[in-house]
Structures are given as C-alpha cells and as structure tokens.
C-alpha cells in the first residue's frame, strides 16, 4: 500500500474523529474501551510512572488485548499490534524488530530482569516464544534506546513482559478463582490449552498457570501474491529416511509446509507473602519444547538436492527463578531487590542429506543477576528512580557427532561457541529524574548510567579451527545518558515530546566466539577476539493528542550508529575461504568498523467514532544505511523492515465485540536488501518481497459470567505471503476458536 494512500486514510480518520470530538460533551465522554495516556507503566520507569510523564514512544498490550488477539504465541501477539515487525525462520519462533534493530539489539525484560543472555545473536532470535502469553498481565514495548534504564542491548527498544500478580484479600487463605482456556487454530491444526488458578488470603497469595501447545504443519495460503513466481514457497519435496537411506519424496500437498510442527509446555508460579510491611515474591517460569524444526534450512537446495536431512532445535528450553523483596518507605522512599537465576538449554541437531554423520551442538547458559531499584520523591514535583545491577553469565558449549547407521557417538571440536567455556560479568549504577515543572504542562526527564563489563572465553587445542590463541577477552566501561521534555502546546491534550539518548551494546559470547555458517556455502563467520561495544545516539521528536474519543501519537527519530558490529570478509591462515561441511566457503568475521544511521517515522491513533464503534490506525516507516569507513559507499542496513502497519474497526456492545482489521506490509525491493545476507533474500521470490495485506475478522461473546467464546477468521482471502526476511510462509486462511471457562 502506497504511503500517500495511507496518509490520506490517516487524515480522514483524524477528521472524522475531530468532528466526533466536537459533538461530544462531558456526559458521554466514555473512554472505557480506550487506552488512557495516563496508564501506569513499569517499563519506561522501572518503578512505574504515568504515561503522560514519559518522553518516549510506548505501546501497551493489556491482558484483555492478548486474549482477544487469539494467537498461538507471543511473537504473533506482538505482530498483531501493527507496531512491531516480526521475522520468522520457523513456526516455533518469532524475532521482534524495533526501529530497524533485531535480536541481540532489542532487550527482552521479564518482571524487571533481562532475558538477553551472553549467546543472544545479532541475526534472528526466536526466544520470545518461550514466554507464555497466558501468564502475562501486560506487555509494554518501549521504542528507542533504553540503555539508561536497562543497560546493554536496548538499542532498538525494550519489550517488557510483566506477569500476573496474585492479590491479597481480607479473608482466610483459600480459593479465589480458576480459568481454563482452549484454543484451536486451523492453519496449523494447533491446539493451545491453559489452566490457571489463584488462591489468596491476608498474608499469602499464589497464582499458578500451565499451558500446552501442539502445532501441526502450517498450511500457507493458495492465493498467489507473487505473480511471475507462482510456485515460490511451495513445499514440493521433503527428506525422509527409508531403509537407512535419505530419500527425497514428493509432498502430496505442497501448500502444507512439512517440517514446521512442534510442541511446547509452559509452567508459571508466583507466590507472594507479607511479613509486616515487607512483601516477598517468589517467581518461577519453565518453558520446554519438543524438537523445533528450522524450516528455512530444511528447504535449502544444493546441487538439485535438499541440503539437509535434519535441522532441529532440540531442545529449546528456558527456566527462570526469582525472589523479589518490596520495601516500602512511606511517601518518600520505595525499594525493590530482585535476585534471579535463568537457565537456557539450546541444542542444534544437523545432518546433511545423504551424510550419515549427525552433529549435535548443545549450549547451556546460566545467568545470575542482582537488581536493586529505588524511587525517591524529593517533593511533589521531583522524583528520582535509580539503582544498581550485577549480571553474570556462564556459557558451556559442547558438540558430538553420531553415526546414524552405527549409533556410535564421538566428541566433536565443532562447538558453536568457545569449547573451553566463557563467562561475562557486568556491574552498573544508574539514576533517572523526572521534574514536573508545571503540573500537566511542562515535564523534564533525564538520566545517566555507567556500566563496567568483562568477557573471557577459552579455547582448547581441540577447537575445530585450531585457533592460534587459547583465550579471548574484552573489558569496557560504557557511560550513557538520556534527556528529554514534554510540553503542553496551548491546547488541552496536545503535547510535544522530544528526547536525546545514547545507547550501547557490549560484544557478547556469540559475537566474539561463534563459528557459524550464516549463508549456506557462501558465508562462514569465525571468531574475532578484538571487539568493542557498539554505540548509538538517538534524537526523538513526537506529538501526542488525547481528548474525549481521540488519541493520536506521531513522530520521527534519527539514530546514529558508531563502532557498529557487522560481519565482513576476512581470512584464516592467509586463506579467504576454507573447506567447511564439504565445500569451500568464504570466511567472515564480526568487526567494529561500520558506521551508519537509521531514521524513521510512526503514526498511531485510537478513535471512538460512536458510542459502540472504535477505530485504530498504526503506520511505521524505517530507513537505514551503513558503511565501513568514511568515503565508502553507503549500503542498505540489514533488519530494516518495509513500511508496515494496521487499520482496524471494532464494535463493542454489552457482551459482544466484533473487529475487522487489515495488516499490511510495503514492498522490499531487491536493491534495498542488505549485502550482509541477514535479510535472507534467498527465501524471497526473485530476491525481493512484494507488498501484501491481509483482511481479518474476529469476535468475542461473553455468553455467561463464567464462559467466554471467541472466534476469528484470519487471512480471509487465503493469500500466500511471507513477511520480510522470513524463511517460512505465513498462515493461509486461518479459522480460530477460543473458549474460556471461569470457576
């Protein structure tokens, strides 16, 4: 969809809403279905702050909105907003993109603790699916650098995932409520089930949730969006093992993407205990999966044959445990201490077609963190929030080779990361202040953070490349800042917001020690021990307007990138290519030599058109370039999504809600693909991604106070499409039925 059309649509919506606003009066100003700009946040300010007091772009997804979205996992929930772009390499994944940054440059935070560990890669990252949507109270997306509050990795923004809180009540400890959720999605023949319950009393409150997800192979749409590439994306062949021989078989239904099915189990428990004025919170989250096929790699072809017979994540597990102590200090002080530990276990099982040797790379990460946060109210106008943080990562990487004919297993030096193990440690102190110079009119915000970081990785003499060194180390000190203000512009509800912020990302174990074939047969990334932190500086300028039935937010930003990590041609032992996995492959290394910029604009609106009728419109446009040094030619930066967004119309009356909405993406032409290969042009028709849009409808019926029924039809026209950079086609026409029972 062209930008001019979208602009005219936005102007039309605003004009209608303005007319409606003029006809409203105090008695019918009902905004119960509208998200207020004063809604309390926990992501922008670690202890919570009114949205109107922040100087940044923020999107809030409530528990109710997540339920109405009726999606299979959290990646799809984010994509439904039309404000977060999501890349997919397989059905069991989803990689959020914020302002042209992805994976290790977007920070995931759960209940105040960072999820990003030392092996988060810069390519495409699928870990968001290990967070169960049914355990969440809300999700907040903080756009732009969040380094002052949250440290490394928050270059594009922060996705803050806040779990549900059990509530104390003035009664003896006992049963409060329970819910059962059952959901069916036809495109993947998926069944998603959840049960949760809550018990509480005066001093003890507990909530428990368990979810099971079973996804079959995903069916793509049959309506062709690719014109001259009518057969693009069809799964015509697949690999099977017959009589101990790898064989290519014809798929009886090429619209079914064989090799996308997977299963997942999630468990969540939170226990709150009061002792005097103190509150103790014990939080546990467990996520485990079956093998998750890497679908894009399973479709790779080499020499007329499928390249892989096996490519699975097995397993893809995460567990999280934390203890939080809340210490109230009256009207002046509040304190919070969080002790946490997280463990991830990711296995990559790969075997080339007609090759009997199966490689298993198993990576374990233990991340321990201590967070102390405070809030201090100097007076009614000035508030400070700050704290200290310590994070320690321990990485273990192992590899084995199994002969699938004999069953013999032998150790391998082909580990993904440093085979002798690696550790990282960071310590930080930060403070952020908000000064309400004139209440409801002029607010100034500013903060600073200082982070000390160290990394040590060890290589044994058995490492695959026989590196000439046994240790890789880095130490850095990273100061960052943010400053901004919000100013009323003479009209009730109209505010100007602007900010200047810096950000950083420390090189992690993945950056420094990974041995990885990024593009099959064309790019082998080898370790580099001479890396420094990436740096950004961003200026934001935005306008927000909220009054009566109308809320609008739009703005633009410019981010400058320095010491940016990009992989570039290199050499090993004087050779620019080495024999890897049976073929000569060019050698690349991560390097800090790149500089670049990202600029973009956004528009978001929510409008109450009539007493029961609501509309929303979201639009995002991003542009990015990089070069290796001054004088070099500017090249397209990777991860820059085409223009995208959403238009929706929702009707609400008594026990019913109905919504019709369109999700859309612009075209990504071939010359805008990054030469780095991270944009996966080999998985796009003709090396570029056509524009697409889907039309969708869903409804919710509160049949009884204890029974809720939802249904939806997504991709009504059954169009075949892929989101930019993805290696799996999206769902075709998808019928969804969800039932929720309360007891």
**Runs with pLDDT <50, length 5+?**
4-32
β-strand number: 44
Secondary-structure-based class equals: mainly beta
- The CATH architecture designation is Beta Barrel
Q: And the CATH topology? A: Maltoporin, Chain A
Range of strand content: over 45%
CATH top level is: Mainly Beta
Sum up the overall morphology in one term.
globular
Number of helices: 6
Number of domains: 1
Please give the alpha-carbon distance between the first and last residues: 46 Å
- Mean pLDDT over all positions: 90
The major beta sheet can be summarized as: 22 strands, antiparallel, barrel
How much helicity do the residues have?
under 10%
CATH homologous superfamily placement:
TonB-dependent receptor, beta-barrel domain
Give the C-alpha Rg: 26 Å
Topology:
Layout: H1 3-23, E1 40-41, E2 49-50, E3 58-62, H2 63-69, H3 74-80, E4 85-87, E5 95-98, E6 101-102, E7 107-110, E8 113-114, E9 136-143, H4 147-150, E10 157-163, E11 174-185, E12 190-200, E13 204-215, E14 218-219, E15 237-242, E16 245-250, E17 256-257, E18 262-275, E19 278-289, E20 292-293, H5 295-298, E21 301-302, E22 305-306, E23 308-329, E24 333-352, E25 357-377, E26 382-403, E27 409-411, E28 422-438, E29 442-458, E30 471-488, E31 494-505, H6 509-513, E32 516-519, E33 523-526, E34 534-547, E35 550-569, E36 577-580, E37 583-610, E38 613-627, E39 635-636, E40 644-653, E41 656-665, E42 692-704, E43 707-714, E44 734-742
Parallel strand pairs: 7-10, 33-37
Antiparallel strand pairs: 1-2, 3-9, 4-5, 5-6, 7-8, 9-10, 11-12, 11-44, 12-13, 13-18, 14-17, 15-16, 18-19, 19-23, 20-23, 21-22, 23-24, 24-25, 25-26, 26-27, 26-28, 28-29, 29-30, 30-31, 31-34, 32-33, 34-35, 35-37, 36-37, 37-38, 38-39, 38-40, 40-41, 41-42, 42-43, 43-44
